[in-house]
């Protein structure tokens, strides 16, 4: 029996951006898009053109390679034409291939929130979709408050779906906006909607206010919808959205789903799931949840005792899927073998070939685990992992050595009596027999050190001319002013490649300098290979 295709629609950069405490910069959006492309989702909803400067910049050019780049916005306002609605026009004029318009499918919300008639609402929906199709966009419609609207007025909710399809929408997405609908209700309502719309035109958008967004999404799929909307690690407004990191392996590995459905994600891409999930948390500057299904560090962890004894005989005793299928690792105190397998996969990803019985592998594994115990995390810092691996394996070129550095911050009054802060850094470097010293002023000690270190690298200066520091994140790993600090630095160069490096130290300047040093080293490794 042929399997039916399910389509994954990621709304991390739009609906996920409504999470309290999360703000995406333009560089963040570009980085998250790269993670989503690596995962292999079908649609990436990047935000709301016209809503803010960052989204305007993001949609000024195409940002995806394989996924369908999607813009979000509202249907046109009542009392004005599509041509005179700036929100709709911002979407139609953006670089997005698809447009996702949200409209209210609950007649009560139409009257109270929009203060228009239900008929006007349907007219606005139809005209907006037609304009999107005419502009060459693939049009999706998010039916806001659909399930609550259906329970209040079934006829109007279904009419909303029919109107969207008749106007040319490719997908009509049923939204559990308040997140309060139960899985059995989802299944029954979707089954009824199938009487007016085919399943391959329907999607599900579930919120997690009862902790059932994943269950509700699976119930909708089982009932007939064929598009799934969700976010990385389940971020989103209030309690979050359906977690794609949990849904994807469930659909790809679990009986009842894998036999009936297929995703546009390969087994190899699924094997990157853990590293993508953790890299996303690192980008958000937060610790990954240890007990996250499939990808958490505790997801396949077992303490010594009867469970470990059973696992030694049969891994399936306490594992519902093989951890390596999602890029995670088995964590049993009596065995490090799964750790080696995971390490070999990471090395292969960076073009480093090593045999499983190579004694250097054990040394590298031990070094990684020792450093992780001190606060390092290489899931979100691939470039630092490559530098560390090359160093331990003895294949890291000796580019330059930092003999010493100094950073000073002076707060004083200038000639006009204004209070200013002046930062200066001095870096002493040795390249072979040549000793170089550079001094630079910057906007803070990290910037000053970055400028000083790159100011004169002798024979290597030309090779880092296009290197640029893009982002800088700090996390305190334990409490107090003397706490251990982790710094994550994002860099890019003229080729468009981006990479992350990490530094850990009780001293924030020292942690920052380590990350900067490894970023330059990684760039020199790239140019060496070229």
Name the descriptors:
18 helices; 21% strand; 530 residues; 18 strands
How does this model look, in words?
The structure is a single chain. With 530 residues, the protein is α/β, with parallel strands linked by helices. Helix content is 38%, strand content 21%. The chain has helices at residues 26-39, 53-58, 86-92, 107-114, 118-134, 146-152, 154-167, 183-193, 213-223, 244-253, 267-270, 273-283, 306-313, 337-349, 359-373, 382-393, 445-455, 508-529, and strands spanning 4-5, 7-10, 43-45, 68-74, 98-104, 138-144, 171-176, 202-206, 227-230, 261-262, 301-302, 331-332, 401-413, 419-431, 434-442, 468-476, 485-492, 498-505. The strands form 5 sheets. The chain has an 8-stranded parallel β-barrel with strand order 2-3-4-5-6-7-8-9, surrounded by 6 helices. The chain has a 3-stranded antiparallel beta sheet with strand order 13-14-15, with helices on one face. It has a 3-stranded antiparallel beta sheet with strand order 16-17-18. Strand 14 (419-431) and strand 15 form a beta hairpin. Helix 6 (146-152) packs across helix 7. It is globular. The model is unreliable at 304-308 and 332-338 (pLDDT under 50).
């Amino acid at each position: 029996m042929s399997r039916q295709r399910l389509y994954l629609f990621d709304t991390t950069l739009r609906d996920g951006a409504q999470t309290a405490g999360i703000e995406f910069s333009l560089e963040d959006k570009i980085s998250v898009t790269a993670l989503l492309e690596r995962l292999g989702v079908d649609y990436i909803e990047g935000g709301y053109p016209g809503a803010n400067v960052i989204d305007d910049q993001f949609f000024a050019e195409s940002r995806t390679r394989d996924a369908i780049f999607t813009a979000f916005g509202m249907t046109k306002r009542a009392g004005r034409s599509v041509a005179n609605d700036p929100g709709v026009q911002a979407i139609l004029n953006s670089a997005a291939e698809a447009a996702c318009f949200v409209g209210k499918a609950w007649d009560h919300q139409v009257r109270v929130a929009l203060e228009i008639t239900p008929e006007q609402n349907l007219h606005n929906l139809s005209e907006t979709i037609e304009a999107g199709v005419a502009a060459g966009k693939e049009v999706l419609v998010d039916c806001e408050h659909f399930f609550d609207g259906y329970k209040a007025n079934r006829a109007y909710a279904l009419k909303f779906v029919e109107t969207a399809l008749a106007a040319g929408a490719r997908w009509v997405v049923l939204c559990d906006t308040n997140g309060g609908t139960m899985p059995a209700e989802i299944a029954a309502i979707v089954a009824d909607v199938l009487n007016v719309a085919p399943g391959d035109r329907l999607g599900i958008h579930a919120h997690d206010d009862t902790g059932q967004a994943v269950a509700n999404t699976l119930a909708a799929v089982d009932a007939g919808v064929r598009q799934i909307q969700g976010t990385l690690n389940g971020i989103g407004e209030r309690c979050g959205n359906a977690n794609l990191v949990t849904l994807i392996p469930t659909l790809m590995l679990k009986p009842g789903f894998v036999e009936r459905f297929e995703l546009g994600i390969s087994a190899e891409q699924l094997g990157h799931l853990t590293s993508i999930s953790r890299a996303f948390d690192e980008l958000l500057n937060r610790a990954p949840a240890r007990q996250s299904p499939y990808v958490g560090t505790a997801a396949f962890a077992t303490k010594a005792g009867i469970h470990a004894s059973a696992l030694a005989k049969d891994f399936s005793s306490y594992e519902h899927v093989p951890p390596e299928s999602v890029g995670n690792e088995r964590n049993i105190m009596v065995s490090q073998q799964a750790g080696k397998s995971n390490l070999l996969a990471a090395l292969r990803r960076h073009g480093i070939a090593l045999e499983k019985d190579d004694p250097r592998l054990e040394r590298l594994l031990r070094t990684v685990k020792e450093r992780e115990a001190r606060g390092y995390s290489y899931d979100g810092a691939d470039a630092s992992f490559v530098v560390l691996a090359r160093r331990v394996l003895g294949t890291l070129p000796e580019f330059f050595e930092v003999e010493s550095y100094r950073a000073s911050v002076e707060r004083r009054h200038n000639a006009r009596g204004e209070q200013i802060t002046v930062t200066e850094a001095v870096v002493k470097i040795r390249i072979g027999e040549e000793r170089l010293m550079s001094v630079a002023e910057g906007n803070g000690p990290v910037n000053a050190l970055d400028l000083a270190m790159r100011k004169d690298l002798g024979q290597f200066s030309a090779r880092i001319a296009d290197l640029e520091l893009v982002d800088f994140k700090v996390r305190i790993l334990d409490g107090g002013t003397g706490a251990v600090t982790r710094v994550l630095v994002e860099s890019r160069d003229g080729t468009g490649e981006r990479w992350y490096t990490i530094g850990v130290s009780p001293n924030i300047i020292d942690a920052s300098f380590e990350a900067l040093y490894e970023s330059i080293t990684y760039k020199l490794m790239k140019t060496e290979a070229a």
